[in-house]
């Protein structure tokens, strides 16, 4: 990058976004008064070109569970960079092999074989393909409002019409049922269903926690019909909800599990699909049937191994549980204080959503938080819901900072609406 003054860097970056990346996003950023660019990050903070430090309550969402640039992950990536960043793909790679073994150890039941890739959507694609090839069945059942990524297969499983409509026809054979309704799920699954794909807690739908027993009911209907259960833990996994995996809340083990986001330690992009050995047959018979040039590269795998170690030794699940209780309780107090503005605050661990009565409130509140140097966003499939997913290392005081800022912003909004 050519040397540029901090002020100019913001304007220059926006102009380049406008001309070469995403003009629509620039309109949004300018609407929120943002003419800065991000230049660095550490811990819970993103630092902008003008030097302002923003407390990161967006968090990736779900990528920065360990915070930005965790030291042990950075060190592991640096070491690997000097050894071998990308694989020859001819000789076996010990870093990928170690990661696959570690994933088998750290996932429930007999989940054992991994396809390691570059993103969450790719992990979902791998799971859908394997489910179809193993079962030889045509149909999938997914949930309304679900978010599984934006590639064709993952989008076909996702449930937001405005993201799907421009790209129709998507893959055939997908049925979407109301999330959390075990009877509707049971009615939709039959002996032609290859797999049921669910998030244990829907994130982009607005942080929707299903009723107790829903995942167990999904497991039961899959067992009864021979359909596979795919649980997408790309956002909920690795401590975020207060347990290592969100499916641990119900003790349910899927046939295929997808991971991503925090798996790369907030340093490298990485996804993984982990499957039970009984269904790995198609991939085992033909080792080149589903591959990726960069997927499972040593640099990303070194980051993942260091991230898994840090996530475990720092017990991020416990951190998310404790800080999550503080955050949710504070948000619920605000919901009680501003009943005309907030429908509900809900969530589990450090996965908290605030649903506003008016969908346009989300934009106002996000703009207000930005003025207070806090980054946040609404859920991708539910713009009436503000989604809060800070790093697990957020402190008690930093949770209070968010709650105070949110209170101020809501007070101003309530006053404006009364005028
Ligand atoms: C549950 C879930 N699945 C899949 C994805 C897609 O992941 P990626 O954006 O890495 O492709 C996301 C991303 O937000 C997600 O939250």
Word description of this protein:
By secondary structure, this protein is an alpha/beta fold. It has two domains: 6-14 and 33-68 and 315-418, Alpha-Beta Complex (Aspartate Aminotransferase, domain 1), CATH 3.90.1150; 71-313, Type I PLP-dependent aspartate aminotransferase-like (Major domain) (Aspartate Aminotransferase, domain 2). The chain is built from 14 helices and 15 strands. It has helices spanning 6-21, 23-31, 71-83, 94-106, 120-135, 152-157, 161-164, 182-188, 214-225, 281-285, 298-313, 316-337, 361-371, 396-418, and strands at residues 38-42, 45-48, 53-56, 113-117, 139-143, 174-177, 193-198, 228-232, 256-259, 271-275, 342-348, 351-356, 374-375, 377-379, 382-388. A seven-stranded mixed beta sheet has the order 4-10-9-8-7-5-6, sandwiched between helices. A four-stranded mixed beta sheet has the order 1-2-3-13. It has a four-stranded antiparallel beta sheet with strand order 11-12-15-14, with helices on one face. Strand 14 and strand 15 (382-388) form a beta hairpin. The longest helix is centred in the C-terminal third of the chain and has 23 residues, at 396-418. The radius of gyration is 21 Å and the shape is globular. The chain starts with 5 loop residues before the first helix and ends with a helix. The mean pLDDT is 95. The structure holds pyridoxal-5'-phosphate.
